[in-house]
C-alpha cells in the first residue's frame, strides 16, 4: 500500500481523512514522518497556505504529501473570517472562542449565508496539484450538536436542517468541503 503524508497535526482531520482513504493509502501524519515543527501558514489565501505546507514537507522530507487549508467565508463579513478562520478570535486557535466571536459579529444579521471552502495541495513525486471543495450553507444563531470540530456546531449545509455537529462523521464527509476536495484528490491518485 502506498504511503501518503497529510501535512497536519490536527488529529481530527487525520481521522476524518483516514476513513475516506481506508484501504487505498496508508495515511501518515507529520509525527509519523518525524516532522515536529509547526508548519507556517502566513499566506493570504487558502491555496497559498496549503501550497506552503505541502511544499515544505516535500522539500524537507522528500515524502509524497498533501496539505489543506480551510476557511469559513460569511457573506455579511465580506468573506471573513476566511484564511483567518482558525485564529479568528485570537492566536489561541480556540474553536469555542472562534464560534462565540462569529456569533457576536453576526448578531442581528438576517443574511446568514456562508460557505466552507477547502484548498488541498498535493506534492506527488515533486509535481504540484491543487484541488478544491466548497459547501454552501448558513450560520445558525446558536450552537447545535456536539460532533465535529471548528465551526461545525453553527454551520447548516444547504438542503439540510442540521448542523455538521449534529451529523455522523460519515454523513458529514459525504457532503463536506473537505470531503469533496479529498474525493477529487483520491480520484486523481487512482490514475497516477
Descriptive labels:
Maf protein, 7 strands, 5 helices, alpha/beta, 31% helix, 192 residues, single chain, seven-stranded mixed beta sheet
Characterise the protein shown here.
- This protein has 192 residues and is α/β, with parallel strands linked by helices.
- It has one domain: Maf protein (Alpha-Beta Complex).
Supply the CATH class. Alpha Beta
Spans of 5+ residues with little confidence (pLDDT < 50)? none
Q: How many structural domains can be distinguished in the coordinates? A: 1
What oligomeric state best describes the polypeptide chains here? Answer: single chain
CATH architecture: Alpha-Beta Complex
Question: Mean pLDDT, as a whole number?
Answer: 93
Question: What structural class do the secondary elements suggest?
Answer: alpha/beta
Topology (elements, then pairings):
Elements: E1 3-6, H1 11-21, E2 26-28, H2 46-61, E3 65-74, E4 80-82, H3 95-105, E5 113-124, E6 127-139, E7 155-157, H4 169-175, H5 177-190
Parallel strand pairs: 1-2, 1-3
Antiparallel strand pairs: 3-4, 3-5, 5-6, 6-7
Could you give a short description of this structure?
Helices cover 31% and strands 25% of the residues.
Amino acid at each position: 500500500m502506498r504511503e501518503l503524508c497529510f501535512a497536519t497535526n490536527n488529529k481530527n482531520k487525520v481521522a476524518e481523512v483516514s476513513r475516506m482513504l481506508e484501504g487505498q493509502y496508508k495515511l501518515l501524519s507529520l509525527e509519523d514522518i518525524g516532522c515536529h515543527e509547526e508548519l507556517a501558514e502566513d499566506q493570504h489565501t487558502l491555496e497559498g497556505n496549503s501550497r506552503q505546507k505541502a511544499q515544505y514537507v516535500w522539500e524537507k522530507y522528500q515524502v509524497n504529501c498533501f496539505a489543506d487549508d480551510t476557511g469559513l467565508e460569511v457573506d455579511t463579513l465580506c468573506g471573513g473570517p476566511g484564511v483567518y478562520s482558525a485564529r479568528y478570535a485570537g492566536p489561541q486557535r480556540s474553536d469555542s472562542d472562534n464560534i462565540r466571536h462569529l456569533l457576536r459579529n453576526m448578531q442581528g444579521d438576517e443574511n446568514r449565508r456562508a460557505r466552507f471552502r477547502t484548498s488541498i495541495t498535493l506534492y506527488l513525486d515533486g509535481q504540484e496539484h491543487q484541488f478544491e471543495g466548497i459547501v454552501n450553507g448558513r450560520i445558525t444563531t446558536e450552537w447545535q450538536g456536539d460532533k465535529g470540530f471548528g465551526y461545525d456546531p453553527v454551520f447548516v449545509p444547504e438542503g439540510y436542517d442540521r448542523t455538521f455537529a449534529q451529523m455522523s462523521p460519515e454523513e458529514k464527509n459525504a457532503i463536506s468541503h473537505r470531503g469533496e476536495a479529498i474525493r477529487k484528490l483520491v480520484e486523481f491518485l487512482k490514475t497516477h
